[in-house]
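User: structure tokens for this one?
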Amino acid sequence: ECFGKSKHVDPVVSTALDTNTAILSPTREAKLSSETIDGLVNPNEEDTTWALGSFASNFLLDLFESNSNNNDLSSDGFAHIGQLILSLIAKLKQIASESDDGTKKRHSKTFLLQCIRVKGHGEETIGLCRAPIGIQKKTIVIEWRKTCERVYKRA
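Assistant:
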């Protein structure tokens, strides 16, 4: 039997992924919608609560932006974690707008776990990326942690 070719289906693995609560890793092809990104990166004056800038420092915003159109695969990780934090903020905004307290509480618990996972994933990604000249990875990791903690606290 070849790996992945088993006819036995594990019921735990085969359960459908709940895409309403899951934060999926973005790919180059499937990014957040332009309206969502624009609303979080360039919010209306009255809706700065959910702006990316209210969670991430200007230092980190500049790092995400400078690498978002870069074709260098070693620095593409910065754009990737930028997309991850945007998807976390979008999910947090969705949870905050829910009216049912029971549903909100259940989704909040799942969301908090996702925040921790994304934070760890981001730290690993930063460790594997090549830092821009003159910037230490330690500084980037510290700013990343602060950003993730702000999202976590808002939940």
